[in-house]
Amino acid sequence: MVVIMKSVKIRAAALCLAGAFVLGGCGAEPYELTEQERSAIVSYSAHIISKYNKLQTEGIKYVDMDEAVEEETEEPVESMDEPEGSESESSTEGTENQGGGEAAPEETVPEGDLNRLVAADGVTLSYQGCEVKKAYMEKDVYALEAPEGKAYLVLNFDITNESGAAAAVDSLSMSPTFHAVYTDESGAEKKAAPVQTLLSNDFSTFEKTLESGETQRVVLFFETEEDAEVFEGLQLLVEVNQNKFKINL
Asked: What residues does each domain of the chain span?
C-alpha cells in the first residue's frame, strides 16, 4: 500500500509539471523561464524523485549532518617540527670540544723555563720527549693503568746536578700544578688534565738530594684519549704559589 501511494505521488507531480508546460503554450507565446526558475524546477523535481524513490540504490548517499559539521570545524594540527638551525646547531656546539682533552685556555700567561721548576743553583731540568701509554710500571713495583678509553700522556725529563756539590730538589714543598697544552690531529688546541701518582719519579711530588754529576729521570702524567697520536706545539702550563707561566717544550 505504501509503495502504491508513493507511485501515485510521483505521477501527480509529473502531471503537474506537464500541465504547466501545456497550458503555457495555448494561444500565447511560450513563457521563457529564467535561469533561476529553471534551476528551481530541476532542483524540486530531483528532490521529489529522490524523496519517494527509496528503492533506488545509485545516486543516493546518506550524509550525517553532525559529522559533516564536525569535519568542517576541525582545526588542522600545527606542525611540531623545529626550525632548522635550532637543536642541531646547539647539539653540534656541545660536542665540538669532545675528544683528547678540554679546550685550551684563552688566558694569556707569561713564558718561563724549566729550570725555574727546580729552584736550585747548578741543577738543570731538560725535556726528553713524550709518549702515550695505556699502563705504566716503575721497577716492577707500582703499576699505573688508565681508565677505559683513556691513556696517559707521559712527559719525560732529566734532572742533572751540575753544581759540583750535593743539591736538594724539592717539588713537593712547592706544590706545583701542571697542565699539558697541545694541538691534536684535527688541529684543535687542547689541555690535558694532570694525574698525580705514588711513583717515586713523579716530578710533581719529587723530593730527593742529587749528588754532584748525578742525573735523575722524572716524569709527569696527563690523561688523554686512548687513540691520541699527535701532540704538536706541546706546552707545559704551570701554576706555583698562585703564579702562572707556560713553558714551550
From this structure: 2-73, 102-248
